[in-house]
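Entry details:
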Amino acid sequence: MRISSQTFFMRNTSSMMEQQASLSEKNLHLSSTKRVMNGSDDPVAIATIQRLKQDLSIGEQYISNGETAQSANELSDTALTQSTYILQRVRELMVSGSNGTLNESDRNAVAIELESLRDELMGVANTKDGNNQFIYAGYEVDTQPFQKNEFGEIEYHGDSGENDYRIGAGVLVQANDSGSKIFMEVAEGNGIFVSELNANNTGAGVISSGNIIDENAARDFLDQDYTIAINDTGTGPEYSVYGLKETTVSGSANISISSVDLDAADINSVDPAINGPVTINFIETGTSTNQFQIEVNGQLSSSIYDGNNAEAQTLNINGIAIEVDGLPKNGDSFQFTQFVAPTPYEEDQAISFNGIKTQVKGEVEDGDTFTLRQSEEKDIFATIQSAIEALRIPGTDQTAEAQRNTAFSMSLLQIDGALDNVTGTQSSVGARLRTIDNQYESTLDFNLTIQRTLSNLEDLDMAAAISEYQQEYSMLEVSQQTFVQLQQLSLFNLI
């Protein structure tokens, strides 16, 4: 009786514990609403479930990245819109400031407003995001990108870094633009040439921008600056066109032809024939550091260029006046070529050479020169400053008016270039925002598909599970009651 009683108790206890464990497990599944919680629940489905969950997590990260990129691009879009409004106002003021009816006081009032707009644009360029970081500083987000130096010039202290965010499989979107690219890298003039007057001109002539009219003809001649020199030998003004380009240069000097005096006594020794280049060399004197003579066609300048002097200096060699700025090196060499021989000047006459066309308007005087300089890059702030300086050119005579008008014409072209730069960047920002929106919708659809597949694989059929749970629970109760009844069976109860 001991052995059979012990076996009876053990079997019943074990059975009820198994039923309780099964109910406990079913209760866990019910509370989580998941059919598959462990690998043992469905070994085939669990691997797919884990992979789908990983894909879902990646999709959620794509959405998070997209939200970050969207916020950054929306802030940039707002700043670029403000910049556009400021530059449009700058352009309006420059157009009104070039009106010949304005007096000096009126022009100064315009200049003061331009100074205010310049500072306002600097503030926009130093915009910060919600994390107190500068949005146009590249990777140097904690450094104010645009700062004034001791001379009042605005310098860029950021870098060219651009952050990319992955917002989809194989889809990267840019979240910022370098302030250098937007505000500092603006082409001068019309992007090909910058038109300038010599500061010593005495006439009222102005020069238009230089344009290419024959690309094939101009292709080999865009690497040099051009000087249009006016000479009057007594029969009326004539113009000549000269080109100047680097040949062998290791120093940092910039040179330009200030004037060509065809009446000079020894001009024939340095004046080139048509298309016959003349060499301009820098020769170190050896008497003092950074002091040079200039040699033109074997003729040496009588004066010395002092490279230790920060100011631009002009040296005259037999009627050719050469302005030098910067520090040359011994042996630096330039090529000086005449492309148009002396030709009678007619007001408003088109001047064409080497596939390039320009126009000089107004009365000119003997010794006046006009320059077409190769376009470089100039920042927006310096362009506005050039317009301010043009407004403050003193004088009311035709010469001063010509200087102002030419400076204004170039500044207007550069403001237009700056506007193109800003609006072009804003178009890129808009395209990025559209990409983010499209990818967001795509990722949401993808995640929804994954969630539906996951639900089919791991979610519990609640109605069936509850029914099964109730059935097992009832069976457990029956087993417990039966066990209680059976353990009371004993022969002693019949005595």
About this structure: The chain has a mean pLDDT of 85. The chain has eight helices and 22 strands.
